[in-house]
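During the reporting period the student researcher (J.K.) took over the structure-prediction task from the postdoctoral fellow and processed the backlog of single-chain submissions. One of the processed entries is reproduced below for the supervisory committee.
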Amino acid sequence: MVERQLRRRGIEDELVLRAMNEVPRERFLPAEVREDAYRDGAVPIGEGQTISQPWIVACMTLLAEPAPDRHVLEVGTGSGYGAAVLSRCCRDVVTIERHEELGDRARSILAELGYDNVDVRHGDGTKGAPDRAPFDAIVVTAVADHDPPQALRDQLRRGAPLVCPVRRGESEYLMVFRGGDEERVVPVRFVPLVAD
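J.K. obtained the following structure tokens:
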């Protein structure tokens, strides 16, 4: 996966590649789809949600500018795989999942694997985690309509990246927001970002 799906497509950051190599992706999938763990595409995980393809996880992690001293928020825990990858690259991760069953499963797997620097929460991720702000980066794993929620922007450290898929018209793009600037990275397809 690392050689074929990541390095060949321009992911060169060794911190990210090492994390992607170390985290056992199959452990985060339901038993009935584990054989698809390393395929180059999204895989269903229940509750109408998916685990993103490996390249997207690596790309979003890279765009968050990971470093060992970073304090990161992830909105949309899903399987817990993205949080696990971020946890190998950053000091700690707060991750929020609106589907309680998915959050509980992710929390259990992360604990089993010893990823003790991940705080899994259940709730409305569009509100962020103001009690743990400010964050050095925020990664959103669901598509926002037009722009990321203002509450998330407000919880970033000055100059920190907010990595978020956004729907503009009929198209969806992975984007990075920083202050008043935005950068379109690549076309994507994500599940919708839902507020309670």
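The committee noted the following: The mean pLDDT is 96.
J.K. will present the remaining backlog at the next meeting.
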